[in-house]
Design goal:
Largest sheet: 10 strands, mixed
Distance between the termini: 103 Å
Shape: elongated
CATH topology of the domain at 1-168: Spore Coat Polysaccharide Biosynthesis Protein SpsA, Chain A
Strand content: 5-15%
Number of strands: 14
CATH class of the domain at 1-168: Alpha Beta
Oligomer: single chain
Structural class: alpha/beta
CATH architecture of the domain at 1-168: Alpha-Beta Complex
Radius of gyration: 38 Å
Amino acid sequence: MLLSIGMIVKNEQKYLRNCLTSIKPVLDAVDSELIIFDTGSTDETVQIAKEFTNHVYEIEWRNDFSWARNHTIEKAQGEWFMFVDADEIFTDVTDLISFFNTGEHKKYNCASYRWRNIFGNGIAGEFRPLRLYRMVEGMRFVGKIHECINHKDPLKQLNSIADHYGYDFHGEEGDKRGKEKHERNITLLMEMHEEDPTDTRTIGLIAQDYQGNDHEKSCEYLELGIKLVGNNQDNMHYHVFRYMLIRNYYSDKKYEEVIKLAKKYLKSVKYIHRALVIIHHHYANSLLELNDYKEAAQVAKEALKYFDLNKEGKLDTRICSHAVLPIGLLEVRSVYAKTLVLAATMDANFDTALAYVKECENEKLDVFALYMQHCLEQKSWKDIPLLFEYALKCGVDSDNYHNIISAMEAFVVAPEIKKLIAEAMATSSLFKNKNNDYLQLHILRNANTSSVKAGHVTQSSTADFSYFLKSDKSFSGHYGDVIVYAMKWLTNFSNFAENMVITNSSEFIHNMVSTNEDVPGILKRFIEMGRWDESSVKLNRIISGMANLAFEQVKKAEDEAEKIAFFEMTMRLGHKYLGMVYKSDIYSAQNVMSLSESDAFVFCTGTAYACKDAGDILGFVRNLRAAVAVNPNMKDIVWAVINTEVGVE
């Protein structure tokens, strides 16, 4: 007989049928037998086992897994012995069957297969336990728990897969079972440790069991193991202990410890193994967390290199028989690409960041927005000009140039942030060459930060509007500040605004108001001073649009008189503008209901104020009531106007 499969079971009815069904293809394809020893089940375990084999036996439980498993070896008749747990279910046995039926087994003394640990939170870790051994005289299991058979190379790493559900605990009951299992394991492992305090395998198992329960204890035993192994890199535990310790440090956010240990280990390591992928990942991310972006990018590139080598099957997998590796970090390349993108971005290495961002699957990473966010979080305003320097390098007609401006403008909504960015841009070396629209905008913004003195607005000596007046370019919404500042400072505002070419007036007006909290006050003073050409359609469009949006800010004010006054100004400006753009027979009382809701509301309120000017109070109230009928959402402010002006409730 070629193969004996041995199992010990107790109350395993939850998984046993699926387990035995998954290995039946092996039993059918290979000259083999199945031996099962039950250690005291009280559920349907024995009955299920007997459905699959006639070799079902019962023994007592002595708190010693090796003692129980050795009974299966004693019954085995095969040339090879394989042991399986009842809570592991094979999803692929092709390689396992081929190993025996092609005669490949003759070249080896032992073999492992892929074991995916399924945990309660769904995370899977990959392990490659040694489960198959050539039968030799005196072969025995050792260890009261996590038992093993001492083996001799050569070792075959099979690609057959089994999912292990031994730690798949859920909810409150699952937590209880997990705690009980941990306490049982630790008790038996400690007995083994007391019998031989220098056994590094036992020390590693203790550290591994504590990993999910007590990292401090886990680290304590790993450090003990490192001392015992010394500098012997031929001992697999030299690598296992350092890998596990780095994992613990990373989970506990002890980034400095991760960097220190990983740097020292990687400098001298000679064994090129699969866990190097994870070590580089944790090392790179720890550097990223501690703001060492340049080094993080270099290590992230190494992590990608090892990830690719692993995918190509060029990394030794024997370490997987001693330590669990997270499957996600072995299979998803975008995890490593993202680290590199972030590190390169924070280091202002935008070429590298953009080169790898396309590899970040399902991750919508905006390199330029990430950089701006980083600068704001770190308050590193002086670094912001580096982003625009890259924009200039790409060229003003490039997508990157326009995307960078959009990313920067997304953060200037808050006045304080706008001020800090403007100061950083204006004081950078970029301003040696001022022949650029966006740089000129920041010159104006920087000038604006010092233009308010003693409660009134004064023109800054550094403000220069001639660039925008002379330009024949069309300016987008980002340049709304230019109009706002011109409204503040220029006596010839009408000429300037009339001649500045604007791309999209709606976007332009929205940006003017949304990024300047002082627009209501500026606009009010501007109207009072009458500093614009009232016959210009373009200027009336800009000013009425500003007033309409600014009113949304004024509505939040507590001063009722201020709200009513601004409402009146807004409606009068809107009425004047709409009277310019509509034909008189359309913008009329006869056709008001054919207008849009917003325009009809402005017509009614504007007509009401015209009646007020003429002394027609009845017409004033009648038209305001008509306005409420058009737009009921404005009833509060309209009734406040009526009550204030004529005392009508």
